[in-house]
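Continuing the series of single-chain predictions for the mutant panel. This is the parent chain; the variants come on the following pages.
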Amino acid sequence: MIKSMTGYGKAECELSDKKIIVEIKSLNSKNLDIYTKIPGLYREKELEIRNIINKYLLRGKVEFIMYYEITDVSKSTNINATLVKNYYNQLKAIADDLGLETSEQLLQMAIRMPDTLNTDVNEINKEDWVKIQHTIEQALQQLDAFRVQEGEYLKNDLKSRIQLIMDYKNQILPYEKARTQKVKEKINESLRVAIESQDIDRNRFEQEIIYYLEKLDITEEKVRLTNHCNYFIESIDEPESNGKKLSFVSQEIGREINTIGSKANDSDIQKIVVLMKDELEKIKEQLLNIL
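Parent structure:
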């Protein structure tokens, strides 16, 4: 099973006087990078929130957003007049610089800015915090389920591309036989010329044969390529997602493809090698988004 590092989760809960909404997004990253946006009332709980996220997510660029909506109208809400004026003056200065007409819209914008409304609640209720923690975990579980679903799509895509590489490898065989025959004819022609000139250096001739045989033989590379591709498929189906392991295996696949290309000495085989490299590059791009 593999998991994507891209995911999204959302959960909410109802408290006595407000509704808490939690949203979590994740993108690919080499490490776990957490960005949080938490209301001032709950900012003291940031470390606990980060610890909860650490338990569920291993890697990825994570954006955690928590906000609330007041549901109990009886709760007294005060406007932070000083802060609103500060926001308004800054917005008006920007509008004046741009030559825009100011209006009451600036005041509406200023009131929507952070921390302009203060409620009487200054302490976090323990029971409420337990509910909030549960809500955060629900959002993380939803994100994880999203990652699994995306991982399934990635797995099918990767398997299909590995199969394409295997198919391309099998297409090399007929060209390989034809290439070997051409080389044999070339060696025979060289031998005929040498005999006619009565100038035969047998040691040199044997060295040339060995050189061509080693230069042409790609059997070992094809066997290793097959083994690496099979191991890649096995690793995809392992219980734990391991993008780094798959990346290492893909590097080995690339090494064998490159060696086949360097030994090919044949335009038709080179074309197939280019197709294999193209599929491998697409695989590597997909692996960047795997946990």
